[in-house]
Amino acid sequence: MTTPTPQNIGQHDAGGDYLRSVKAQQVGAGDRFLKRQGDPSSPVTQVRTSRDDFGTPALVVATLADGREVRIAFGSTIRVRTRRPAPALDVRTDLYPAEEGSPEATVVQVAQLHPDNQHVLAVASKLSRGINLRSGSQLEDIDTLAHHLFIDLDDSDGALTLTTLLTQLPYDGAMGRWKSIESALALAATIHFYRGEEVEGRAAAARLTEPDEAETDPIRAQRTAEIRQRQLNEPNLYDREVLRAETAADLAGERQWREARLATLMYLRARGGSETFGEEELDRRVRREVADLRALADRIAEAGGND
């Protein structure tokens, strides 16, 4: 079992600013350019666009508070620290056209069902530019988006559609890629179990054993099986971390640890339980954790935490 790692869901730095990559022409007053060392420049006070001899925008010239001028090629991307929220994405213009039947088309089709959800559109916009199914980071993006659809938006159909992009991929020994495939398999199994589709759920769950079965050395295989059984019997459900975040009223931290707990519970359920947790008990715990996460997502949204 891949140990779940809580993801950083914040988009601000310690000072409350947004860290964002923007087009040169989107730079505005108050923005600070990030230098190669990561330090911010003086704030921008004024921006003008310089055109070439044919009247085409060529350079964006930003004047800083310290008097310096920064010239940036029009249309290029630059990293800034800014107080301004990102402009809203539009499902009609910010998703790249995709070839029918391609992984990109699958992502776009799912995203189009949530035209007002900026998180979905942001991830889908990035993925619609091109998906490399051998890229661990892109597999993680797809898996994360599928979980967001299931947990936050209660869209099990969309989540299940996205998991199919990963659940058909083989185990090739690359654990960096497999962790996302494994997570998608556990999610797919969970959704099927939710629906009472036991056959489909167990079919998805069956593939979770592939890394164990890939070991050909009998001694190593036995040792791996013993370690795996111990992990199943003594899982880390992050009780202390969740309680600590709850006590501190740290909504983002609580969400991170609850997501890690849910990932463990879904994996355990998909593996058929263990000597410690039976399938019925795991079904109950998974449903309760999903309900708690959905309620927590509402609280975070009310607190303005989804910027």
Mean of residue pLDDT values? 89
- The largest sheet has its strands arranged as 1-6-2
Topology, number of strands:
6
Separate helix tally: 11
Largest sheet: 3 strands, antiparallel
Please write the string of helix (H) and strand (E) elements.
EEEEEEHHHHHHHHHHH
* Overall spatial form: elongated
- N/C terminus separation: 33 Å
Q: Beta-sheet strand percentage?
A: 5-15%
SS class:
mainly alpha
What share of residues is helical?
40-55%
Our Rg estimate from Cα atoms comes to 23 Å
Low-confidence stretches: 5-15
Report a brief summary of the structure.
With 307 residues, the chain is mainly alpha-helical.
Could you walk me through the main structural features you see in this protein, from its secondary elements to its overall organization?
The chain has 307 residues and is mostly helical. It has eleven helices and six strands. The strands form two sheets. It has a three-stranded antiparallel β-sheet, with no helix packed on it. A three-stranded antiparallel β-sheet has the order 3-4-5, with no helix packed on it. Strand 4 and strand 5 (69-73) form a beta hairpin. Helix 4 runs antiparallel to helix 5. The protein is elongated. The model is unreliable at 5-15 (pLDDT under 50).
Question: Which features does this protein show?
Answer:
about 300 residues; mainly alpha; three-stranded antiparallel sheet; 11 helices; about 50% helix; elongated
Question: SSE layout and pairings?
Answer:
Elements lengths: L17 E6 L8 E2 L10 E8 L5 E8 L4 E5 L3 E6 L20 H9 L6 H11 L7 H16 L4 H12 L7 H20 L3 H9 L3 H4 L4 H16 L5 H9 L3 H20 L8 H24 L5
Helix pairs in contact: 1-2, 1-4, 2-3, 3-4, 3-5, 4-5, 5-6, 5-10, 9-10, 10-11
